[in-house]
Every structure is written in C-alpha cells, then in structure tokens.
Amino acid sequence: MKKVPVILSFLTLTPHFFTQSVTLINAASLSAVTLAPGSIATLKGTHLTTKQHTFPDSQHPPTTLEGVSVTIGGQSAGLFSVSPSQINLLIDPGTPTGTQPVVVTSTTGTQTGTVTINRDSPPGLFSLSGTGTRDGAIPNAVTLKRGDFSMQTGDLPTYLALFATGLNTSVAPTVTVGGVPVAVVFAGPAPCCDGLEQVNVRIPDSLAGAGRVPVVLASKRHASNAVEVVLLPRAGEGPFTSDPENHRRSRELSGLASVPGTSLVLSVDQNDDVVRAIDLSLKKVTQVITLTQGAGPRGIAVDAAGRTAVVAESDLGKVAILDLSQFGRFSVAAELPAGPGAVAVAIADTQAVVVNGDLDRVSVIDLERKTVKKTIGVGRGPKAVAVDSLAKLAYVVNENEGSVSVVDLVGLMVTRTISIAPPARPESIALAPRGGVAYLTLPAAGPDGRFLVLSPSSGATTSLSANPAYSGGSGAVLVYDSNAYFANQAGKSISVVPISPGTGARRGPITQVQVDRGPRALAIDTQDKLLVVSNEGSGTLVLVDLVTNRVVGRINAVRTLLPGDDDADDHSDRAAAVSLPSIVSPSPRSAGPTPSLHTDPRGE
Fold first, then answer.
1. How many domains does the chain have?
2. Vertex 371: Cα angle to 365 and 374 (nearest 5)
3. CATH number for the domain that contains residue 163
4. Residue 596 lies in a domain
5. pLDDT greater than 50 at residue 35
6. Final residue in a domain of this structure, among 183, 206, 231
7. Can you give the pLDDT at residue 373?
8. 314-319 contacts: CB < 8 A, separation 24 or more?
9. Does residue 354 belong to any structural domain of this protein?
10. CB neighbour list of residue 448: distance below 8 Å, 6 or more residues apart
11. One domain for residues 106 and 131
C-alpha cells in the first residue's frame, strides 16, 4: 500500500488581530493545548513581520525566513511560512519539555510568549478547510483520491490515510469512525514533511452507508480533534442503484425539522443545495426549495409558529431564511452572512443562533429585521446548539474543546463555560423540556452509544450508554415527552431511552428500533405522533410511531417525482424548482488565518 505523500500548504487569510504577546497552537487542530516536540505548530500574533513568504521545501524548513526567526525553549524552530499575523513552524524535536519561552525576532522587533511542551500531547488531525473541523484531509490510501468513500475499492477493502501532527507513534494509536474502532494498518512519519504523521486505516463493511460521521485519532489517553468523512452504501444499495463506488452523490440528506401544526417536515439536502418539503400524511415530496448553489446546507430549525425556517449553509458561511407563511409556496426570504462553517442553528422566539464551526463563534440573527445582531466567540470547534426560550439561554457544544458555552440571549454574551472531562468530543445536544438537564452525545467515544446527562446549573455530568448492541456511537439526539431518542448512524438504529421528566435520569430499559442506513437527523411530528428519521445512506425518511416505537412507514426523500425531476442522482430536481433565493448583500465576516493540507497525487 502507498504511503500517501502530501504537501503542507499554509494559507494566510484576512489578518485576525491579537495582542502583542504571541500564541502557539497545534497547526492541525488549532487547539491551544500542550504541544509535542517535533510537531507542526501555528504561531499567531500581530506585526510579526512585514512580508508574506512560504518556503518551498516542507522537508527541510529553514530556521530563518525573510528575516524572521523563532526559538522555543532556546531551540530554533523550522519555518514553513511567515506573514504579519501568522507563522507556521516545526518545533525542534530537541525542545525541552515544560513551560517554555517563545521568542519571535524579525525586522518589526521582538515578541514573546509561552507554551507548554509535553511529549504526551493530544495529536491534531488536518482538515480540508485548515480549521480542524468538518471534512478531514483524508484521501483513499490506494487511489490517492479525496471525497466520499465506499467500503470497497475495486475488489479490495477501502483504506484511508489520515494526516496528523503531534502524534506519539511509539505506541499504537487508535482510530474510531462513527464510534466504531477501525483497524490501523500503518502509523508513522509521512514521507513528505517534517512533523507530519500518517495513519492508514481499513474501513469495515459494517460502516457501509453510515453517511457523514466523525473520525477521531487517539494516543494513550489523548484524543485528537474530530473531523468528518462520508461513507457510502454498497453498490446497488443506495437510493440510486447505478451510483459508482467512491463517487460523491448529487443528493445527500442532512438536516431535518418539522413544521408545527402540520404534517410537513423540511428535509435538507447538503449536496443538492435544496430543502424539500415532505408531507408525511401523503408520504411524498410536495415542494423543492432552492438555495444558493454551493451552499452545502446542514442544519435547519423552524420557529414555534411554523412561519419561518433558518438553514445553516456550511460551505458559504451563510444562513438562508425561509418564509413558510404560504402553504405549498415556501420561499427563501433572505440570505445573511453567518461565518465560516455554519453547521447548526436553533431558534428562540425571534432570534436564531447559528453555529460557525470554523471560526469558533455563534451568530445571533434578528429574524424580524433579518440582520445579524452580534457574533459571539465560544469554544474550539462548535458543532451544535440548543436554546431555552424561557430562560433566554443558548447552549453551544464545542466539540473539539470538550465544553459547552452558555450564551445569554438578552445580553448577547457568554456567561459561563462548562468543561467536560477529556477526551470527550460532544457532537449534539438536546434539552429536556422540564428537567433542567441537557443530553450530549459522544459519537467518537465508542460503539456503545455513549452520552452525557448534563446539569447546566451545576456542570455535573452522568455518563450513560444508549446502544446495547455496540454497533456505533450516538449522533443526533432529540427529547420529546418522557423519552430521549438517539440516532446510531453506524448501526442503522434508533435508541429510545425512557427518562424522568424531573431529573433526566433513565427510568427503564432501552428500546432499539432498526431503521435504514445512516440515520443522521431526527424530528418529531406532533400532528401525527411520529418520530421522523432522516437516513443519509438510504435517502429515506423512516416514520416511527411514538406510542409503539414501531416503524410505520418510509418515504423516499431524494426522489421527488415532481415535474422536471428525471429520477436520477443529479440536480434535475433543483433545476426544475421555481423558488429561487433572494439575496441580502452584506459581505461575510472575515476569517482568521488558518493552515490547510493538500495531497500530492504524483508521488509514490
């Protein structure tokens, strides 16, 4: 098998201003944790130099570049690139451990800071965005191609290559994909670049059709940041049987929300850039609502009145506001800037809270004025949000920090941060309506569907399991009445956990309901008393009776049967739709400088 060569390309975007003291973080995860000797790091500051320059040879970075030099613990660092606001560097393998001084010297003067060096540090996984979030910089280890992955490549199992820095390869690392441990077949230095490690893994057939799931690399007790891959169904088993292997689909289900007082749900298609209105009583798609091309929509929320929906457009860093006031003629009323990696949204009265996963912020949007009220900094790698409309609070899950930020929706500020014991990588959150507790899923924690019951008032957590079949980690979570519902993307099932309305504690045995491949999102249809499960791998909505916990119906959510849809895995349904978006023109907020990783298909 090939050890996939790569080129590290560190990109400096619009400058992000910091104090005169410098900050050193892991170049892959962008986390301010302890750093390992010999790892790649990103140094942030202001006026670090007057020029921008990247050294062309990533195997032999110089210790001086364009008049800039950096020492850490008295050891000179190798410099990959320099700019006024960011320096990407290699920490010398001989750097002493402990708290060490960082000194930057250039034509603009000398700046200093400190960093903790520890040989046993959390590794960082590189992502395509360079932010340590969303799509991982993960190619097929045999074909060298990036993209969505089948379980087979030709007649062989699919092997993926992960790229990390700060990984201690003296001990065997572990990797989970959707909470399922996968076989590590190689772990060691990447052949291209100093400070870069490569981990090759084999994807088991049991993960076929799981969809978009988290990948986490762990060494000893330390977990990396979570990145994502999309795992496709077996040939002939998806909604379009002629789809080839290892080929990105044109239609891919993501978010889901019900419209109160109706039998309608809104199903988001991340690859087709549409929202489909689906009538559950008729079991069919009734309308296709188009979003801006390239939007990459993920999360969706509908207000309590059922008149407005907000869609998080992850690839554009925007949100689309949908007008639901005219039944059967839903339309895009506005599109607003939110921030890079808009991955989730929740609505509290007339405000929407949008998670900007790449920029470690949330944007609060005034839905009446259709304006961004404020952007608020939260923790590293925010992934999900839930709101308490009565208390005027939002709870933001910071996946790659392992914390929850509590946001005051009146003062528009973070009032406290609740830390979760490492190495937790929480992904989803749901609030119990009367219990004063929150449920957080930990899909990367293992195949037992691990989740936490969190008391926001005290910060105390209780760890429980939602998957007695041990078939994968819990992803989406939803609470309704006296049950918590957990989606197991890897295991094609939903877990129904009876809970106490007062304490949130489990009060009975878990019921597992087999659904279709890749259950990614959940919604409750109160009109028809149904749990609605959006299955990414099968392209279906599965309907589960809330009383009996039995599957009572299925709806094809990617084939519309509307005029103009040619019933193929393409964008014909989008092209035939008439609800084109209207655009609000403010420019998106600038992002901070981030590194990225690209593969080079030429080497061996």
1. 2
2. 55
3. 2.60.40
4. no
5. yes
6. 231
7. 97
8. 314/134, 314/270, 314/341, 314/342, 314/343, 314/357, 316/292, 316/342, 316/588, 317/341, 317/342, 317/356, 317/358, 317/588, 318/292, 318/342, 318/588, 319/345, 319/352, 319/354, 319/363, 319/365
9. no
10. 465, 466, 467, 468, 470, 473
11. no
Q: 392 phi and psi, to 5 degrees? A: 60, 45
100 is a domain residue: yes
Q: How far apart are CA 533 and CA 519, in angstroms?
A: 6
Domain boundary among the residues 106, 122, 138 is at 122
Per-residue b or e along 83-96, where b marks 16 or more CB atoms closer than 10 Å to that residue's CB: bbbbbbbbbbeebe
What tokens were used for 532? 């609605």
End-to-end CA distance of the chain: 10
Exposure string over 128-144, b if 16+ CB within 10 A, otherwise e: bbbbbbbbbbbbbbbbb
Residue 453 lies in a domain: no
Q: Answer yes or no: is pLDDT of 408 > 90.
A: yes
CB 458 within 8 Å of CB 435: no
pLDDT bin (cut points 50, 70, 90) of residue 579 is low
Task: Give the pair of three-digit tokens for residue 114.
Answer: 């400190």
In this predicted model, what pLDDT tens digit does every residue of 466-487 receive, in sequence order?
999 999 999 999 999 999 999 9
The model's pLDDT over 39-78, given as tens digits with 9 standing for 90+, comes to 999 999 999 999 999 999 888 999 999 999 999 999 999 9
User: What six digits make up the tokens of 142?
Assistant: 């045999």
**Do 114 and 53 lie in a common domain?**
yes
Neighbours of 122 (CB within 10 A): 26
Q: Residue 35, Cβ neighbours under 10 Å: how many?
A: 27
Mean pLDDT of 357-363: 96
Query: 14 and 113 share a domain?
Result: yes
CA dist 542 and 474 (Å) reads: 17
pLDDT at 403: 97
Encoded amino acid at 408, one letter: D
Structural domain boundaries enclosing 184: 124-231
CATH code for position 23:
2.60.40.10
43 CB neighbour count, 10 Å cutoff: 25
Is residue 24's pLDDT more than 80?
yes
**Can you tell me the distance from the alpha carbon of 159 to that of 204, in angstroms, rounded to the nearest whole number?**
9
Find, among 489, 484, 445, the residue nearest to 463 by Cα.
445
As a whole number of angstroms, the distance between CA 39 and CA 208 comes to 34
